[in-house]
Amino acid sequence: MKLLLMDGHSILNRAYYGLPDLTNSAGEHTGAIFGFLNMMFKFIEDEQPDNFAVAFDVHAPTFRHKMYDAYKGTRKPMDPELREQVPRIQEILKAMGVPVITMEGWEADDILGTLSRIGQEKGMDVTIVSGDRDLLQLATDKIKISIPKTKKTGTEIENYFAKDFEQAYGVTPKQYIDVKALMGDSSDNIPGVAGIGEKTAFKWIAQYGSIEECHAHVSEMKKAKVVDNFIEQWDTAVLSKELATINLNAPIELEEGSTKLGNLFTEEAYLLCKRYELKKLLPRFENTDTASVTDNTADSFKRVNDFSEVETFFEDIKKTGKAFIGASIMAGDDKVIRGAALSDGESTVYVECQGFISADYLCHKLMEICKAGVRLCFWDLKNVMHLITNILSDDEKKAVMEKGGKSQIFPNAVDVSVAAYLLNPTKKEYTADDVANEMLGIIIPAAADLFGKKKLKDALLDDSLLEAVTTYACYEAYVAYGAFEKVMAEIEAAGMGHIFTDIEMPLLYTLFDMEIQGIAMDKEALAQFSQKLSTRIEELEKDIYAQAGEEFNINSPKQLGVILFEKMGIEGGKKTKTGYSTAADVLEELAPANPIIGSILEYRQLAKLKSTYADGLQPCVGEDGRVHSTFMQTVTATGRISSIEPNLQNIPIRMELGKEIRRVFYPKDGCVFLDADYSQIELRVLAHMSGDDNLIGAFKAGQDIHRSTASLVFNTPFDQVTDLQRRSAKAVNFGIVYGISAFGLAKDIGVGRKEAQEYIDNYLKAYPKMHTFLEGLKSSAKEKGYAVTLYGRRRPVPELNSSNFMNRQFGERVAMNSPIQGTAADIIKIAMVKVHDRLLAEGLKSKLLLQVHDELLVETYIDEQEKVESVIREEMENAAELSVKLEIDMNEGSNWLEAH
DNA sequence: TCAATTTC
DNA sequence: GAAATTGA
User: Fold this and answer.
1) A605 in Cβ contact with A655 (< 8 Å)
2) How does DSSP assign A643-700, residue by residue?
3) A245-255, pLDDT tens digit by residue?
4) Interatomic CA–C1' length for residue A169 and nucleotide B7, angstroms
5) Does one domain contain both A833 and A875?
6) Are residues A241 and A255 in the same domain?
7) A673 and A797: one domain?
8) Is residue A534 part of a domain?
9) CATH number for the domain including A578?
10) pLDDT at A289 over 80
11) From CA A474, how far away is CA A899, in angstroms rounded?
12) In whole angstroms, what is the distance from residue A410 CA to residue A385 CA?
């Protein structure tokens, strides 16, 4: 029989410091948990124990503290990142059926000592795993102490039976206690005897066997200061010995057989590992039946594929006057709708598209009940609306294009993923299984559990997975129904009801309409531009190869670094983790002295232009000659929207050559582009939120804000500000908006860090209320755990409690930046909704097409231009009532470049 | 996954 | 500070 014991805190501690920090998408730290479990699995495999237990300390004074106040007094408090992992690993261990043994008033050491003694008495072989050498005193010929050491080459394990210990240390394990009594232990704050260190302690104990024997023989010892100390501090030595002695008789009560090692890979443990996103551990659960779920609502899920049954189902909904229904539509990448699940909380059904139940029929039924007043709740409503639009007739589609998706498809729907995003915008995704777990406290299968390696789109095409698809869809509908109210309650409690109802949901419809419209793009012109770029790129390539003396891949930073800094021996190369940095700002410094650098920088610029824009945009043009980007509403931490496939929010504008790309975006016949962008919206938000009179005054006076800043910061009359001063002031303004660090600012404007700090200090002096405002943002975020915008939108900032200085500094910048960026985002969202809604309300045919953070682009019918201009101006300028005016710059043009 | 580049 | 895309 074999007993394996683990020292919980010690191993968790080793894992925490020995492994890189891991965080799951909810921002929970998991690195130590992962390391601990791996270590545990390794020992279980190696040792093949029949019994297994883990001991943890509890945070309470032990009998040792009662003996000696200062016991462990020098211990630093545990990092918060590690502390939060303690209950989690215990939770997982319990889920695995592993006894987690803790005892108030006793240390894990005593528990381990006692258990090992009992184990030995029962005739078992015992292995104790710990990173702590204190436990070595427990070694006997039956009790082995294993100390894992993480080295670069992997984990090495030192094993000590009593005889190994004696060989290594020259004393017995029991005598090691006496050694410690003499030399003390700084980590536990055991005093020991002054002047006696490791050497003397071992020597004495090896010779006399114990402190008592030493004490009895002091007269024989050579006269020395340490001997006097020893005699003087005999009481301390005795106390130290007591402190250092692990108690083998802790009053542990264990049920018979409770340490028996069973199947660790339980369903419960699997779900926890999944929850903490310990993906590498999941394969270990291979043989666990993880498809079955602890939640049994799935039993009541029903699939219907009989036409009349579906008919009566929808009739019932109408008759019973259901006000709210959770819904989910199943479709793959082909956008073909395979079915829809609906849930009213009591019954949940999956309607399969098949036979007379066509997608067309099903979608129209859904639209019908929604228009009749039933509120539908979806995951990713915007996408659902696209799926539905896809199966509509041409006339219906036209109506959607002209009158908007809200009135034509779902006038009364909500999106639970957007709601969940508002509650915590820092997560990666907002899936039903995640929200179910968080809001309803139930564990439901995720796509991966139901479909295995297949994705939903493949599963939809695989008849054998119909059951799984049914379960999946039903859960989505069921959770949409069940979680929405709870999410909303939390949103209301957090004071974000207004944001959800009056900003995000209307915005969703606005974004849908923008996506439906798309923007016309000249594919031919792009192809020509690409050709033009190719010619110049080839020239540059040749030039670079000639200067380098060989051909290589210029796009590979690794190869480029080697060529520049090794082969060509260019001085001043900076290192990154993986090699030399070849970033533009690094190379630019080296450009004057090295002609090849100029060519490389130009090559880079053109290569980016060609690959991302000239070539990258071409396949995005649809059959209608327009590009339909997707605006993501649940991605950014601050509340901004983002744009993908393609990203139309980073189309070049600064570089002369790059901005030519904007020419290929053009208005349709009879239209011009009206492009309006907020002037300095973030600084205006800052002026308002800080209430700083100087900044507000500068805006009210209509001054060039960077010049005004320069004038204050450099103490120069306004009209004598030099260009350089203005440029520096502009960088400082940017820095403030972005949550300044002297380091970042220094890098930005090419001055020393000290000088940059002076700029910041001057800035804070120039705007007296700014300092208190920014400090207030930091302390408020730290206290509350989140940063908050003017409208109450929240963004968690757990980094503020990090033990790592860099992380904490990052958190501070986030705390300063998020409210500003987020408030600006709120304002333009409000403006978008208002512009969009008013264009429709006033019966104008002109359409909002794009948003680029502080800019709106409207495809404007020429005969509506005047009206549209005033709509844009009014709605954008009045989107928020700040202590400074919101001003916009508006231009018209026959392409995006001209209009900007 | 990382480094680099583009935008606001 | 916030993003998305590309290529290795």
Assistant:
1) yes
2) EESS-TT----SSHHHHGGGGGB-PPTTEEEEEEEESSHHHHHHHHHHT-HHHHHHHH
3) 999 999 998 88
4) 64
5) yes
6) no
7) yes
8) yes
9) 1.20.1060.10
10) no
11) 48
12) 8
| Residue lying closest to nucleotide C5, CA to C1' | A612
* Residue A68 and residue A109 share a domain: yes
DSSP string, A504-557: IHHHHHHHHHHHHH-EEB-HHHHHHHHHHHHHHHHHHHHHHHHHHTS---TT-H
Instruction: Give the Cα separation of A212 and A178 in Å (integer).
Output: 9
- Give the CA A577 to C1' B2 distance in Å: 10
* Dist CA A24 CA A281 (whole Å): 14
**How far: A784 CA to C4 C1' (Å)?**
31
User: What is the radius of gyration, based on Cα positions, of chain A?
Assistant: 34
Distance set, CA A422 to CA A382, A417, A490, A787 (Å): 16, 9, 10, 13
Give Cα A869 to chain centroid, integer Å.
Answer: 40
Nucleotide C3, nearest residue via CA and C1': A642
> Which nucleotides in chain C lie less than 7 Å from some protein C-beta?
1-8
Nucleotides on chain B within 7 angstroms of protein Cβ? 2-8
Same domain for A64 and A116, yes or no, is: yes
Instruction: Report the protein residue whose CA lies nearest the C1' of nucleotide B7.
Output: A650
Question: What are the tens digits of pLDDT across the range A524-577?
Answer: 999 999 999 999 999 999 999 999 999 999 999 999 999 999 999 898 788 888
Residues A321, A388: one domain?
Answer: yes
Model confidence over A723-732: pLDDT tens digits?
999 999 999 9
C-alpha of A212 from chain center: 58
Q: Is residue A530 part of a domain?
A: yes
Q: Cβ within 7 Å of strand C: which of A 540-559?
A: 553, 555-556, 558-559
User: Is A200 a member of any domain?
Assistant: yes
- Give a yes or no: residue A641 inside a domain: yes
Q: How far apart are CA A735 and CA A739, in angstroms?
A: 6
Tokens, residue A587? 């190379």
Range of the domain at A239: 171-246
Residue A845 sits in the same domain as residue A784 = yes
Is strand C in 7 Å reach of the CB of A635? yes
Q: Is the pTM of this model over 0.85?
A: yes
Nearest amino-acid residue to B4, taking CA and C1': A583
**Number of structural domains chain A divides into:** 6
Do A478 and A561 reside in the same domain of the chain? Answer: no
Is strand C in 7 Å reach of the CB of A860?
Answer: no
Round to whole Å and give the CA distance between A434 and A479: 10
